[in-house]
Amino acid sequence: MSDLSLASLTEGKPLRFEKNGESICVTRVGAEVFAISDTCSHSEASLSEGDIEGFKIECWLHGAEFDVRTGEALTPPAVAPVKSYPVTIDGDSVTVEM
After folding, report:
1. CA–CA separation, 80 vs 31, rounded Å?
2. What is the mean pLDDT of the chain?
3. Res. 18: pLDDT tops 80
4. C-alpha span between 14 and 10 (Å, rounded)
5. CA angle at residue 6 from 93 to 78, to 5 degrees?
6. DSSP letter string over 30-61?
């Protein structure tokens, strides 16, 4: 069973998604889809409300940036990474692996 459709993901517009009780931020960059934890490692802010530029997402609250491919914290005030999840795409079906 797929979690999302590829058509529901707009490039540069992160989407908050719930699976197995976890909040996940899903984003599309070109033909690729990435999934990371939706909660910033610096504060309890939702990353899906942030801005995407290339492979970076910026937390709207304090401006910390994360790599959507790996979850790595790129700029302060965040120093800890967020969890990243593998994504599989099959036609229009997008599945986030937990």
Report:
1. 28
2. 96
3. yes
4. 8
5. 110
6. TTEEEEEESB-SSSS-BGGGSEEETTEEE-TT
The encoded tokens of residue 67 equal 């790599």
* Cis preceding-peptide flag for 86 (omega within 30 of 0): no
Question: Residue type at 11?
Answer: E
Question: Strand, helix or coil at 6?
Answer: helix
- CB 81, CB 69: distance < 8 Å: no
Bridge-based pairing state of the strands 32-37 and 84-85: antiparallel
What tokens appear for 28 in the block? Answer: 């599309």
User: What whole-number distance in Å separates Cα of residue 18 and Cα of residue 26?
Assistant: 10
Question: Would the pTM of this model clear 0.85, i.e. be above it?
Answer: yes
Interior/surface letters 9-25, b for 16+ CB within 10 angstroms, e for the rest: beeeebbebebeeeebb
